[in-house]
Amino acid sequence: MKTLIQSIRLTLVLIVLLCVIYPVIITLAGKLSKGGGDGEKIAVNGKVVGYAAIGQKFDKPQYFWGRPSAVGYNAAGSGGSNKGPSNPDYLKDVKSRIDTLLKYNPGLQKSEIPADLVTASGSGLDPDISPESAKIQIKRVAQIRKLDEAKVASLVNAHIEAPLFGPKKVNVLKLNVALDELK
Q1: Deepest in the core among 22, 36, 74, 90, taking most CB within 10 A?
Q2: pLDDT tens digits for range 140-156
Q3: Residue range 118-127, pLDDT digits in tens
Q4: Is there a single domain that holds both residue 44 and residue 98?
Q5: Where would I find the beta strands (DSSP E) of the chain?
Q6: Could you tell me the residue range of the domain that residue 8 belongs to?
Q7: Residue 74 sits in the same domain as residue 158
């Protein structure tokens, strides 16, 4: 009987702790974060065009391209391809992405292409690219938009984020929104 009472007490304490207190703390932390727990929305002229933490497909040459997605940028089903580096299908996908980059970025050498532009992230929804990935696209974007390369490079440099932990990064959606506002 003593063990049963202790088990019931422990169960009640854990229910209160894990079903009441923990969710309240997490909800408050979310409300204090950017976007109030709803994510950081990116809006243009009052219309939400995306979220800062979810990658989107940009494949038109006049935009900066982000990381490829193994899930077609579907936020409802994030995930990687689970294909290893020796998988023939994976290698074919990477080669195709390299060929596309070389086609749309004349003068670019295969050895200059950063891995994050040809390999999908684990979630398939990575919104960021490395500064190097953004910089190799400056020439293409500037030529197509008939903009000064230095002006586009300055825009890229202004969008390089240096988080407290981890490498520097460029949010592709924020960069492309700013690019559309550039005259």
Answers
A1: 90
A2: 999 999 999 999 999 99
A3: 998 888 899 9
A4: yes
A5: 41-44, 47-51, 128-129, 160-161, 169-171
A6: 1-38
A7: yes
